[in-house]
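thread: overnight batch results

M.L. [08:02]
morning all. the overnight job finished for the chain we discussed friday. pasting input first so we're all looking at the same thing
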Amino acid sequence: MKHIPDQTHSSGLIYEIGHQADLTQFSDELEYLELLLPNIATSNTRDLRTYAMAYIERFPDDVLQLEHEWKLLYAALIQSSQRADYGTVIALVQSLTHVVGRLDNPVVAEHILRLGIAACQQLPDHKQLAFFQNRLATLLFSHGNYQEGRHLWYSSLRQAESCGDAVCVWEPLSSFAHMADILRSYEETQRFIAMIQRSDEYESSDYFLSAIFIRGFRARVMNHPAEAQNDLKYCLRLLSTHKKITYSPSYRQLFTMAAQTELARVQGDYARSQAYAESSHALAQLFGDRYTAASLLIDQMFFTYRQERFADTQTAFLRLSALSYQYADPSFIRYCHILEQQLALQSPKRSSYAQHTQRTMPIPTSSPLQEALSEREVEVLQCIADGYSNQEIASLLVITTGTVKKHLEHTYAKLHVRSRTAAIARARSLSILP
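M.L. [08:03]
and the structure it wrote out:
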């Protein structure tokens, strides 16, 4: 069984919620919940897990409602895990998967999913295990762990296939942006579609819908308009006739709007494509995760740039820059800098534009990851970059070698890397190190 990080060491928030959660701590929330859950108000059972289960039954896939009460649900999840109530753990994690990509604390988000994975392994529940592994894969991928995320994503498909459910892992209509990047090429998307088509009634699967959309997107980017238009029209036709979608209507709306955006782009209807893109971005901010919101902005940036609509490119660029303050994904920041350089060349007021972007870009000023690293952790990382050994760093900073190792462990976790070389590369990409 995969080791679940100790709750008292994963983060301060995990400790706070896991060790202090009781009814009195959430008294205000519970009073509010009783207005939404009248059956709870009249019952004699006043237990945190009872409230949590009633809440997710009332709002099973309502992203906004689940997001408002995620701390209460997380507290109930930790209590259920401590009491080995694995069925309740799985149910709570299933609901929290809708919001893990929206949480500011990636350690907590990962902890939620790993608790669900551990519970599935205990029961065992192989189908839910595949779902949670797939969601963890997209979470790791969205935080820059591309190799591990992609590997786990394909592993979750094989796990689901062994359960006879290979093409229905988690919610592809909400994770189409992750899938588009995990499936790195037109050819890889073709192979994925071929795998789906081996199943019965493949046209009614949400994975097939997403894969057709991604193939159309790839064809548009590769400048194959006929193939792109066919796939995107096919995708929208399936969406209009597909009656078996059981996921949140908000996800379906977001996915449909993204498909309409791409179709308008390939058809050369710029005004319509921009209108759909604006709606897609608004829906992604409301119901999607930050990765999806950022991906949609990147697509809009490059499309408008190729259309030489530089004012619209700059608008999308500034939005992505603001989002990067919160997200701090190295690839998104790199895209920002690529467009920053190109826009500076195109801008008639180059100097004033450059001054403005310096104020809006998260690099080289600061980033959430840089703020997450302590001053001492940055010092240790700089010493590593300068070629010092652990023993030399300990002598230089007047600390023990054990403390140096502990600082490195914390730094690796915060930067989502596993080696000194990767830590240095990530820190430099984020301008934590020069």
